[in-house]
Amino acid sequence: MALPLALPSGRPARPRNLLNVATLVIVTGGTALFAALISAYAGLAHFAKVWPPQGVKVDDYVGNMLALTAIMSAITVEWAWYSIKRDDPAQATWGLVLTAGFGASFVLLLWQLGRRAGFGPGTAKIGPFAVVYFAMLGSIGLIALVGLVAVLMALVRTIGRQFSSTNHEMLRATAWIWDFVVVCWIAIFATIWLFT
Questions:
Q1: How does pLDDT run across 93-123, given as a tens digit for each residue?
Q2: Of 28, 35, 77, 115, whose CB neighbour count within 10 A is largest?
Q3: Measured distance CA(101)–CA(186) in Å, rounded
Q4: What is the rounded CA–CA span in Å between residue 80 and residue 110?
Q5: pLDDT mean over 43-50
Q6: Contact 113, 59 (CB under 8 A)
Q7: What are phi and psi of 157, to 5 degrees?
Q8: Contact call for residues 158 and 92 (beta carbons, < 8 A)
């Protein structure tokens, strides 16, 4: 019978799912932010005589492409997480590569939507519509950038084979962050493009 050479550490083990709980707390706060922005938009639309104001044209094509890109990215990030759960890092890598590509496209399309608006900052047409519209775009853009950085970090760790079927907490948190981006964009898309 072999004796152990050293005693195990007396330090308690790191609590599991701590990153997932923190992610859910952050997502809850973000949900409150977007609920407030959408409520402000709906309240202003209710009391305005004409909404959106005269001379304001919201680009339907870019809005639709943003929605399709977001939905495709949600599918690929969940594919990556499901692949890691099955111990298939090659499939997870492809899922994260596609998610990163869709995420970068989403951020660039969002930037184009803001730049080509023709109203808001830098123009004479600054009003309540422009303020709420750009607050929504800016908020979703910031969260999308955070989500894209998380996807890229998860991609690096996946390529380095640091995830397994028993150790995939960071990838689950990354998928939740990106799913939050997608859900927020769909809510904004429905508010501005479908119900206005």
A1: 999 999 999 999 999 999 999 888 877 666 6
A2: 77
A3: 19
A4: 24
A5: 87
A6: yes
A7: -70, -35
A8: yes
Q: Could you say which DSSP state residue 155 is in? A: H
Q: Which amino acid is at 187?
A: A
CA distance 1 to 22: 44
For residue 98 the two structure tokens come to: 């596609």
Query: Which of 32, 20, 5 has its CA nearest to residue 168?
Result: 20
Element (H, E) at 68: helix 60-85
Q: Tell me how far CA of residue 142 lies from CA of 37, 86, 111, 131, 166, in angstroms.
A: 15, 32, 11, 16, 31
Cβ neighbour number for residue 62 with a 10 Å cutoff: 16
What radius of gyration, in Å, describes the C-alpha atoms of the chain? 21
Asked if residues 189 and 113 have their Cβ atoms less than 8 Å apart, the reply is no
The Cα–Cα gap between 116 and 133 comes to 13
Tally of residues, the chain: 196
What are the b/e assignments for 94-133, b being 16+ CB within 10 Å? bbbbbbbebbbbbbebbeebbeebebbeeeeeebbbbebb
Residue 14: pLDDT over 90 = no
Please write the tens of the pLDDT for every residue from 149-165. Answer: 999 999 999 999 999 88
